[in-house]
Amino acid sequence: MHIVTSFLAGLIFGLGLIVSQMVNPAKILAFLDVAGDWDPSLAFVMGGALTVTAVGYRLLDRWHKPVYASVFQRPGKSDLDGRLIGGAAVFGIGWGLAGLCPGPALVVLSSGANEAVIFCVAMIAGMAAFKWLERLRAQPAAVAGDG
Questions:
Q1: Which residues of the chain have pLDDT under 50?
Q2: Is pTM, for the whole model, over 0.85?
């Protein structure tokens, strides 16, 4: 049953991205172009997402545990640091250049569009580079701890 509910949640999410036109790079870029021909319609999509999220978090306080897990997974970290700000900056730059972010890119990838393929390959390369840099960053600490 867990697989079915996961599939349905993903399907609803993907359909929401399609209906809201979050899979249309031209629409995204028009939203981000606040100094030019700005299209504010995606602000309503974001407002709706924030509303649903806020209601969801309020409901979490009433439930003792989720249906398919032993505990709710809530963010444990709430402070801003360089990694968070840097990651947000890289995400924003990529979103502004491509007009896609990871969720919509995976939906568009199912159409076989070249832009989505290139985006997803670059996204996977970025994730691999991050893992590699994290390993490099952890190595000096391990070496210094041995001395």
A1: none
A2: no
